[in-house]
């Protein structure tokens, strides 16, 4: 691996370490939407972007945005997210943003000469949905598909609406988030794989074929709070027992349908009143449901929610569920995918692996909204992610930089005039696959 690429990768690692210090919880990375720590992360990335000569701003939803702003007729968008889950790893999201920053720095000289497109970069504000249980906030706004009702109706654990959180984070006068579509070549996101496939195949990089659809459901079991010492077992309506039995059963249900790629997770649970000597009267929680095919997910959702009714009835409880958000499964753009595969090979890397993504990504929200989108995955140690042990090696980051260099240079070369012929800027629309 050429030493310049390794040097660039090392600088990205150092920057990842600095971003990891931007957190709400000292000692572990937790960076939710609208937090002081997300603002701190923006300040760091903003300084690196500005030093690379890009114009930067925060948009009206709170994404960090940047552009080479040369007035080119075409634009290519790169990026990923800067928010995190609770007790996160340091690569999930920031790796893609910092690779984009590095590309802007590295190609700075050519970007300011006859480079045929402007480079835009997005550091998305809320891909994980940690605070509002609502994913892809920043990318949906950038794609122009965020329903304003969501701003009024979505609340965090303290009852603050999303709209109020946005106002507190970026104020009222930030420029609109929606990205004009004219001249947009597409969106490319580099991301840690978050799974074990590339490691098993011995490949540092993979090109994503499609991204699983997902549903996020809020649910509650309502029973009856009662004295833990005096209420006979047969006379209880224990909302936690109902939730626990249902959670175990939906887990088994998804395991039986593993061949269809179905995964189901209850990731949050709250018990009320939450005292050791009181029978739980109410439990609330979340369900995250994903599958590569929308039909699989829809059918599973119906069956799993019906099971909730059964377990509620068994315990003398009631069950309520509300689908808070659904994102369809998407296929990545065929034109961009092909270019990424060619770029991986041109960088001299072993077999270019194509693989689907079970994790959600901002690219899924943009693709669902019709923006040609593609992703390059970087090998992940042990498949571990959403965990502090998440890790990509500097060699693999350098491989991603090499492939992205090739990708950008090939895209630029295609646009240059040949033998005095008029400049032809590639129209990826002609090569685009379906995004559904
Ligand atoms: C995001 O990382 C998700 O897949 O939930
Ligand atoms: Mn994540
Ligand atoms: Mn991510």
Q: So what's the CATH class of the largest domain?
A: Alpha Beta
In terms of DSSP E residues, the strand content is: 15-25%
Small-molecule components bound: glyoxylic acid, manganese (II) ion
How many helices? The count is: 13
Shape: globular
Instruction: Provide the CATH topology of the largest domain.
Output: Aminopeptidase
Give structural notes:
This protein has 436 residues and is α+β, with helices and mostly antiparallel strands. The protein folds into 2 domains: 3-211 and 329-415, Zn peptidases (Aminopeptidase), CATH 3.40.630.10; 213-327, Alpha-Beta Plaits. It has helices at 3-20, 36-51, 94-106, 108-112, 137-142, 148-153, 162-170, 197-201, 239-256, 294-314, 334-346, 362-368, 394-415, and strands spanning 55-58, 64-67, 74-81, 117-124, 184-192, 205-211, 213-222, 226-227, 263-265, 269-272, 278-279, 282-291, 318-327, 330-331, 353-357, 373-378. Strands 1, 2, 3, 4, 5, 6, 14, 15 and 16 form a 9-stranded mixed β-sheet that branches. Strands 7, 9, 10, 12 and 13 form a 5-stranded antiparallel β-sheet that branches. A two-stranded antiparallel sheet has the order 8-11. Helix 2 (36-51) packs parallel to helix 3 (94-106) and helix 11 packs across helix 13 (394-415). The longest helix is centred in the C-terminal third of the chain and has 22 residues, at 394-415. The chain is globular. Residues 81, 92-93, 127, 191, 361 line the site of one manganese (II) ion. The site of one manganese (II) ion has 6 residues, from loops.
């Amino acid at each position: 691996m050429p030493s310049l690429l390794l040097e660039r990768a090392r600088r990205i690692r150092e920057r990842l370490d600095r971003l990891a210090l931007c957190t709400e919880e000292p000692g572990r990375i937790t960076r939710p939407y609208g937090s002081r720590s997300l603002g701190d992360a923006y300040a760091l990335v903003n300084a690196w972007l500005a030093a690379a000569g890009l114009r930067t701003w925060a948009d009206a939803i709170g994404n960090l945005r940047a552009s080479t702003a040369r007035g080119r007729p075409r634009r290519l968008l790169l990026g990923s997210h800067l928010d995190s889950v609770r007790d996160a790893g340091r690569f999930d999201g920031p790796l893609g943003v910092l690779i984009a920053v590095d590309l802007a720095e590295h190609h700075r000289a050519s970007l300011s000469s006859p480079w045929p497109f402007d480079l835009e970069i997005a550091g998305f504000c809320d891909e994980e949905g940690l605070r509002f249980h609502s994913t892809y906030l920043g990318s949906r706004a950038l794609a122009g598909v965020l329903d304003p009702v969501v701003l009024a109706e979505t609340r965090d654990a303290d009852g603050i609406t999303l709209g109020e959180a946005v106002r507190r984070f970026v104020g009222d006068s930030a420029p609109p988030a929606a990205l004009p579509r004219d001249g947009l070549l597409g969106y490319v996101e580099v991301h840690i794989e978050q799974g074990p496939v590339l490691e098993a195949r011995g490949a540092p990089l993979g090109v994503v074929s499609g991204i699983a659809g997902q549903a996020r459901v809020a649910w509650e079991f309502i029973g009856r709070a009662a004295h833990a010492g005096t209420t006979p077992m047969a006379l209880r309506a224990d909302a936690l027992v109902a939730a626990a039995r249902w959670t175990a059963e939906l887990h088994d249900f998804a395991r039986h349908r593993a061949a269809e790629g179905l995964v189901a997770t209850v990731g949050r649970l709250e018990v009320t009143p939450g005292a050791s000597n009181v029978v739980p009267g109410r439990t609330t929680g979340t369900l995250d449901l994903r599958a590569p095919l929308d039909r699989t997910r829809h059918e599973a959702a119906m069956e799993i929610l019906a099971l909730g009714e059964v377990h509620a009835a068994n315990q003398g409880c009631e069950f309520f569920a509300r689908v808070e958000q659904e994102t369809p499964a998407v296929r990545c753009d065929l034109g961009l995918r092909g270019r990424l595969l060619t770029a991986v090979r041109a960088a001299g890397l072993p077999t270019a692996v194509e693989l689907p993504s079970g994790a959600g990504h901002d690219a899924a929200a943009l693709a669902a909204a019709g923006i040609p989108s593609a992703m390059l995955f970087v090998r992940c140690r042990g498949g571990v992610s959403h965990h502090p042990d998440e890790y990509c090696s500097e060699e693999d980051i350098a491989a991603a930089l090499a492939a992205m260099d090739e990708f950008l240079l090939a895209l630029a070369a295609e646009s240059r005039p040949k033998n005095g012929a008029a400049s032809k800027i590639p129209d990826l629309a002609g090569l685009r696959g379906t995004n559904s």
